[in-house]
Amino acid sequence: MRQQPRDAVKATGQVTFHSNCGSDNCSFTIPSGTDVSTDTGKHYLTQKDVSVKSSGSVSVTATQAGANGNTDANTIHNINSGLLGVLASVDNPSAISGGADARTATVIQQSDLDGPKDAYAKDAVPQVTDQLSGKAQGKKLVLVGSGVQVTVTSDHKVGEEVTSFTVTIKVSGDGVAFDDAAVKAMLKSALQHKVPQGSQLTTENLALSYDAIDPTADGHVTLNGHASGFYTPVFLDKAIRSHLKGMSPSKAHAFLQSLRNVVDARVVQSPFGLPWLPLFSSRITLKIQEVSSSSSG
Questions:
Q1: How far apart are CA 134 and CA 131, in angstroms?
Q2: Is 281 helix (H, G, I), strand (E, B) or coil?
Q3: Is there a contact between 266 and 252 (Cβ–Cβ < 8 Å)?
Q4: Taking the CB of residue 65, how many other CB atoms lie within 10 A of it?
Q5: Does residue 279 contact residue 241 with C-beta atoms inside 8 Å?
Q6: DSSP 8-state symbol, 180
Q7: Strand (E) positions, 121-248?
Q8: 225: β partners
Q9: Residue environment code for 144-178, b if the CB has 16+ CB neighbours within 10 A, otherwise e
Q10: Sign of the CA dihedral 32, 33, 34, 36?
Q11: What is the DSSP string of 79-124?
Q12: Are 38 and 71 in contact (CB under 8 A)?
């Protein structure tokens, strides 16, 4: 809070003029700015013209600012304007009030609200974020909007004069939780549908990613996903090795080269070459090397 100077304030109220003519045909106007006063010397000016037949009321303001301009009811009796003092009498049925002396007031500043808010948020925001993560129970959590937010309210507004005030700080946030593994499984499934028949996705270099867009407090979220990877022909490993057993290296090479989707085939014998391949398929090792052919979605 800070100290702010306040100017002195003039007292205000109403007075009533009563006609002294003694005739129903007598009427006159009390002009704006007419001076009326108490017997103790407190003076007030009328704020507009007022027509008086039997009586008429009008607002007045003290000529001097300050608490001294306040006066009790029925204390204003003097009309300080020559003939008007003969034609009419004046009174104030209610007190003239609101006058205040110049002073220094204590008022609320924005920093009085921001200070406690920032101090509390330092520990509270991580705590609430952790609580949301705990409620997600291991699932992927996406915070709604700008995440956990801190708001502050007060029982008085900034700039108001106070002796004390109460600040309420609220920390809140919403999140959407979903199964990350299930999302990636859907992406992989969508990618597999783009793989040509007779081919299969490789397990290496498979990239599955997504962005969560516009999560809402009612649990809805849009996921923008991307999946990419490589695919290879589907080779029936066991059947191929069974076909190759006892075959000459040259025939084995020709057979392998004839297989669908094979770009290049090599037959390697170790530790030394023989005129034929092993007679047992379990002694034959089939190695498949991928070439650059990718699928994405």
A1: 5
A2: helix
A3: no
A4: 17
A5: no
A6: H
A7: 140-143, 149-154, 167-172, 175-178, 199-201, 207-213, 222-233
A8: 210
A9: beeebbbebebebeeeeebeeeebeeebebbbbbb
A10: positive
A11: E-STTHHHHEEEE-SS-BB--B--EEEEE--HHHHHHHHHHHHHHH
A12: yes
Report, in angstroms and rounded to the nearest whole number, the Rg of the chain calculated over CA atoms. 48
Average pLDDT, 10 consecutive residues per value, the chain (297 residues)? 91 95 82 97 97 94 97 97 88 97 94 94 95 94 94 94 94 95 94 86 87 92 93 76 87 85 84 87 80 54
First to last CA, the chain: 60
CA atoms within 13 A on the CB side of 68: 9
Beta bridge partners of 229: 295
Where do the structural domains in the chain lie, given as residue ranges? 7-103, 108-177, 179-297
CB 66 within 8 A of CB 83: no
Beta strands 103-107; 2-6: pairing state:
antiparallel
Q: What is the pLDDT of residue 291?
A: 65
Tokens of 94: 């209610």
The answer to whether the CB of 32 falls within 8 A of the CB of 46 is: yes
What amino acid is encoded at 106 in this protein?
Answer: T
Buried b (16+ CB within 10 A) or exposed e, 99-121: bbeeeeeebbeeebbeeebeebb
Sign of the C-alpha dihedral, residues 82, 88, 89, 94?
Answer: negative
The amino acid that residue 43 corresponds to is H
Instruction: State the Cα–Cα distance between residues 217 and 93, nearest whole angstrom.
Output: 61
